[in-house]
Every structure is written in C-alpha cells, then in structure tokens.
Amino acid sequence: MYWQKKEECRPRAELEKLQLARLKNTLTRVATNVPFYRNQFHKLGLNPENIKSLEDIRKYPFTLKQDLRNNYPYGLFAVPLRDVVRLHSSSGTTGNATVVGYSREDIITWSNLVARILCGAGLTPNDVIQIAFGYGLFTGGFGLHYGAERLGASVIPVSAGNTRRQIQIMQDFKTTALVCTPSYALKLADTMMDMGINPNGLSLRFGLFGAEPWSEEMRQEINERLGIKASDNYGLSEVMGPGVAGECEEFHGQHINEDHFLVEILNPKTLEPVKPGDIGEVVITTLTKEAFPMIRYRTRDLTRMITEPCPCGRTFHRLDRFVGRSDDMLIIRGVNVFPLQVESAIFRIDGTQPHYQIIVDRKDNQDTCTVKVEVSESYFFDEMRKQRTFIDGIQKSLAAELGLSIDVKLVEERSLERFEGKAKRVIDNRIL
Amino acid sequence: MLVEQIAVFVENKPGRLAAITRILADNKINIRALSVADTADFGILRLIVDNPQKAAKCLQDGGFTVIVTEVVAIEVEDRTGGLATVLAHLADAGVSVEYMYAFVNRSGENAIIISRFEHMENAVKVLEGTGVKLVSKEQIYNM
After folding, report:
1. Which of A115, A253, B17, B58 fits as disulfide partner to A150, beta carbons 3.0 to 4.6 Å?
2. Are A338 and A323 in contact (CB under 8 A)?
3. Nearest alpha-carbon partner for A151 in A129, A171, A173
4. Please, how many CA atoms are within 13 Å of residue A174, restricted to the half-sphere of its CB?
5. Under CATH, which number does the domain B71-141 receive?
6. The predicted structure's pLDDT at residue A92
C-alpha cells in the first residue's frame, strides 16, 4: 500500500530528473543563505549553476558531525529563525549537542515521509499506534507521531520507559502497532513473560523498529515472540529524523525516499563510490529541506544499496541491513569485520544472544582475533566432546561469515566487562 | 540406578578451584569424588557430593555455571583385573565410555567407578545383566 503512489512509483528517469532539479535548487539556496557552505564552495570554485548531472555532487565537500558542532546553534540554518517552527537536537552520545530546525513546510514533508513508511509497513488509518520512542529533543517520538497522525491512525503518545505500563496500555487500548527500538521490543517480550501475559492475546500486529542497527535473526526472534510483523526504518536527525527510508511488506531492504534525499554509498577510506552492491558508508544530501539543508552528510552508517526493482512497485532503491558504523569497523588481516557480523554468526549456533567480546591483537606483525563467549547452562556440557563440538561450531560459523579464522574462547558467566548495562563488544589492543 | 553428578565450568585462572571448594565448604557440602577435564582455556569440573541439588544451587548463586547430570557408580573389587572384567562386558556389548573416574570406598575394600556412557540406559542394562554391583545414590550420598 502507498501513501503517495505517484511519488513512490515514479519512473526512475523522471525521478532522477526531479532529483537533479532539486539538488541544484538546494545547492543554490545554501550557497546564498549559509556562510559555511558559501565559503567552502567559493574556496573550491564551485558554482551550483554548473550542476549538470547527479554525479556532479561528487565535486562538493562533505559535511561532518563536527561541522554541525562548530556551527552550533544556528550557523547552518538556511532560513531566518522566524520561519523555523520546530527545533530538535541530535541524540549523539559523543561530544556536544547539535541543533536542527524545521520550517512549516519541512514539518509537512516530514509527516508525509513518515506516513509513507507506516503505510509501506502495512499500517492503515484503522491502526492504533503506540509510540514508545522518547518525546522531546530526540526526533524519534515526534517524527513518528506526526507521521502517524498524518496517516489518520489513532496515536498513543506513551513515550519511552515504564515497561509494565506500556504493556498495560497495549492491553487496554488494544494497540495494533508498536514503535520503538528493536532491543526495547525484546525487553517488552521479556516483561510480558514476567507478568504472565501471552502476546498472542494482544491486538498487536505490527512493529516499526529503528534508531539502532539490528540483525535478521533478531527480527525473527521479535516476530516469533510478539507474534507480529517487524519492519525496519531509518533516519537521523541531522538530515531530518525518521522517514528517510523504510521497509515495505517484502521486508527486504528499506526504500529510500529518493525524491527528498540523494544517497551515495562511498568507501569510507577513499571516499569514492563503492562498486554497485558493495558495502560502504551512507552519505546523504537533502533535496527539499528548507530550514536545515544538508550537503553530503557523512552518516558513518554502513550498508549496501539494493538497486533491483522491488515487487512492491516502488521505484525507490533500497538500503540493505546496516552492518555497523564506519567508526567501529575492524580490519583484521585486511578483512573488514563488523561486530554485528560476529553477533549473527554466534546467534546462528545457539539461537540465543550470548554475551561476547572481540579481542584483536597484533603478534609478530600478524593480526590475531579472539572471540570470547560467556558460557551458559544451555550450552555447557559435562562431556568435553560435546563442549568442543559447540566451540568448533561457532568457529566454523564465524569463518563462513567473515572468511577469516578466529579463535573462540569460552569464558565464565558475567566475566566480560559491561558498561552501563551494555557489553563492550570490541577490544582492539593493536598499536598501529 | 543413576547417581547425580554436578559439572562446573571453570576458567583456567588462579583461584577458581579454591573458590568452588570454599563455597562447598561454607555450605557444609562434602565432596565424595572429583575429576577435571581440562583444555588450555577452561576445565570441566565434575563432582560427586553428598547433596548435589544444594551444591548446584550454592555454586550458581556464587556465579558459576553448573549443570546436574546423571552417571553410573559401579562397585569394583580392589584387586588386579577388577576393572578390566567390567570394561570387557561393556566392550562386548558395544557400549562406549564418555569418561570415568574412580575413588576408593571408605572401607578400603572396593573401588567405586563413576562412569558416563554414550547411551546410559543401554549401559545400565548391560551392567545389570553381568551381575556387576551398581551403587545407588543413597549409598553414595551417605558414604
């Protein structure tokens, strides 16, 4: 189902023509209204008038998170503050906060793009949507809220936290769709078990999860435990918030709202485009944002682009599952390794989510990598043969996933350090 | 005729066995027999104690990973060829041994062999058929 069928199914040639016109317009606007961009373009001798094709974007400089911080609070705004109707702040966990702004028109666009994603995931105006994202400066709560209202669904703005109350409301209000992070969905499932509530007795049918990377295995677990169809959606406050991309009911990659965002997939080291279908960093240019346009924002998020036509009829290309961030990618003996790949290899063997840690070292100029896995009763045996088989199984699964032989060590329960409840996944002892 | 044994996961680092035996001592649990199967990184400590369920709970509370499994306790005369006779019966019947360890009964006359077989039920049947004396759990716990 579509929210804006004409836009979502526009022929590629027509779409690219529209993107080019909007790109030129955006570049011209920032060159006129934002000193930061004007100075950079001037230094490189770039004139937006000369944009002839979408590839010309490659001549333009990148925008980094640090640039947002340096221009805090309003330095990158392209309209006067009187035209800004909303301010949000990025959820960045490192460094200073950043501020983003929205014009009246931006809010309408944002709502429509989120409505597209809700619609694409199978939701209709008949749904009762429980939004368990935080409301406030974080874009997740309000972004989904406005989109859900735009769609015409019944919205429960419950916000984040208080898990038991979430479940009570889910039961009493007959929630049909849940919006939160995928890890919170599993926490809700755990708490339901504690409370003796059978998820199958609820009205819940859909889950829209985002704001953190997750694996296909995790989706299966959520689907089975909550009895729902879980879909992935993607966005970040720097370019807008949720609504940048989202999955359709094929559940195979997230359609990018390409009429509003120009997405490049680049090698994070060379900053050149990767070969079609290869993994690289997502770089986004906004095409319609008025108050806070972004030129070639380096998201640090890594995935590949799916360009094959989708059976759903949307012409937008898709982003495959995110495999990690360019800042936590490890290169071991020349092979790119992402912690999430290790996680899914371990998960395949055991079916549960063990605590693990990846330790990288360098001995005699040779990288060594060990994955420590915490033992648990479900895979501890009194017979050494069975114990070895289990460890070898993980080793084989890792080798198949990464194309790299990795040592697996079983360690005692709760022996791996955790920070604020989260395990520290990677310890890189190499001195490069 | 099966006896409960507890198995504990032990990482190869100083003080772990001491910690386990300390927990058992503090909870007044007596160890009848033990064996360690070890690799470079970790070991599997197997224990026969006078109260396996309580021992398992205490060690779990102490942060250890513990499972309770069933083994067979065979009483063998403490003389040359005692064990060879028993194992010959098992070999003839095609029963394979996963692991075994032994201790000597307090009276000093007989040895007790703690054994884990690939197919436990089949092994017990074979042993009973040959007239080998199996020790019950009550006897073991109260030894």
Report:
1. A115
2. yes
3. A129
4. 3
5. 3.30.2130.10
6. 46
pLDDT at position A337 over 90? no
**Nearest-angstrom CA–CA distance, A308 and A319:** 11
Q: What is the pTM of this model?
A: 0.67
Q: Which chain A residue lies closest to B61 (C-alpha atoms)?
A: A413
What is the residue range of A296's domain?
Answer: 1-323
| Nearest chain B residue to A412, by CA | B11
Residue A382: its chain B contacts at CB < 8 A? 5, 7, 44, 46, 67, 69, 116
Q: Give contacts of A385 with chain B, Cβ < 8 Å.
A: 98
Q: Return the structure tokens found at A64.
A: 């980094």
A419 — pLDDT class (breaks 50, 70, 90): low
Instruction: Kindly report whether the peptide bond that precedes residue A35 is cis, defined as omega within 30 degrees of 0.
Output: no
ipTM of predicted assembly, 2 dp = 0.91
Which CATH number does the domain housing residue A169 bear?
3.40.50.12780
> Is B142's pLDDT higher than 70?
yes
Q: Which of B16, B65, B99 has the CB atom closest to A383's CB atom? A: B99
A112 within 8 A of A146, measured Cβ to Cβ: no
Average pLDDT of chain A? 91
Tokens 């094959």 sit on residue: A308
**Any CB–CB contact under 8 A between B80 and chain A?**
no
Chain B residues with CB inside 8 Å of A375's CB?
Answer: 9, 42, 65
CA distance A100 to A241: 10
Residues A306 and A385 in one domain: no
Question: Are A242 and A352 part of one and the same domain?
Answer: no
Q: How far is A373 from chain B (nearest CA, A)?
A: 12
A253 and A283 in one domain? yes
Same domain, A210 and A354: no
CB contact under 8 A, A384 and B42: no
Contact: B11, A412; criterion CB under 8 Å: yes
Domain B2-70 is in which class?
A: alpha beta
Stretch A116-121: mean pLDDT, rounded? Answer: 98
Q: Does B64 touch chain A (CB under 8 A)?
A: yes
